User: Fold this.
Amino acid sequence: MRLDRLLANSGLGTRSTVRDKISHGSVMVNGAVVKDSSFHVKETDSITIDGVEINCQTKLYYLFDKPDGVLTAMEDKRLPCVADYIPDELKSKKLSPVGRLDYHTSGLLIITNDGELSHRLQSPKYEVPKIYLVTYRGLPWTSDEITTVASGFQIRDKGYSEDIAPAELKVIDESSDEFSHAYLTLREGKTHEVRRIFAHFNKEVVELRRIDLAGIRISEDTDSCGAIRPLTADELNILLEATGLKQSSL
Ligand code: URA
Assistant:
């Protein structure tokens, strides 16, 4: 396949923007600069743009920093949704978000058309760690409460008992009369799980941001909210290895 077609098909820009990058010498194929857009490449070739290896498969993988106040959906008639942030040239690629963040949660959301990876990232079987930065109000955590979170416990906030899997709580700072902050690492993905865990211990979540998925980390501050970019080859490998779709190269 032509180099410009492969890059455009991989969601790295329109045909004309990728041709510009190629003619400026930003693109290397198997370690050599290629300035000819019609150069023939295979999906298995190693291709870099500005030194960063890119993933050239027909399956597409994006990292989106979801802002607070955006619905995790590809269509909504009334509210801003993830689809509003997908570039036009990708609209036909059948992309969808992996799992969901609440309307008022910001942070890391993977967007892909790889159904198997999406399924595995959401399955409790693979225990893919997700780290949330939680801003909350309430009394300081006791060591007993932190141990209960670490051991897993039962919750009855919906009128029936549900198991909450072991999770790791790391308090950053605590205040009885102002906002407190903590990291919570979950390895399953029940709906509203962070808010429900905090409510169970009489704490109110006032801001929630997912900052890490399987070791892919984004900034803790919200300056990058709304940004969407392709996953790097290294980031994709992290997800494939975390879900058993690829053997670790270590
Ligand atoms: N837990 C929550 O409570 N909300 C989210 O958006 C994600 C995890």
Summary: The pocket of uracil is lined by residues 101-102, 105, 192-195, 208 (CB under 6 Å).
